[in-house]
Amino acid sequence: MTQHQRLLIIDFGSQVTQLIARRLRELNVYCEIHPYQNVTEAFLDEFKPQAVIFSGGPDTVTREGAPKPPMSVYQLGVPILGICYGQQIMMQQLGGLVEGGKISGGGGTAEFGRAFVSPAGEPLSILKDWFSAGREQVWMSHGDHVSRLAPGFEVYGTSPNAPFAVTGDTSRNFYAVQFHPEVHHTPNGRKLYENFVRLAGFRGDWTMGAYKDEAIAKIRAQVGDKKVICGLSGGVDSSVAAVLIHEAIGDQLTCVFVDHGLLRLNEAEEVVSMFRDHYNIPLIHADETDLFLGELEGVSDPEQKRKTIGRLFIDVFQKHANEIDGAEFLAQGTLYPDVIESVSFSGGPSVTIKSHHNVGGLPEKMGLKLVEPLRELFKDEVRALGRELGLPESFIGRHPFPGPGLAIRCPGEIKRDKLDILRQADAVYIDQIRKHGLYDEIWQAFVAILPVRTVGVMGDGRTYDYACALRAVTSVDGMTADYYPFTHDFLGETATRIINEVAGINRVTYDITSKPPGTIEWE
Ligand code: XMP
Question: Which CATH class is domain 415-510?
Answer without folding.
Answer: alpha beta
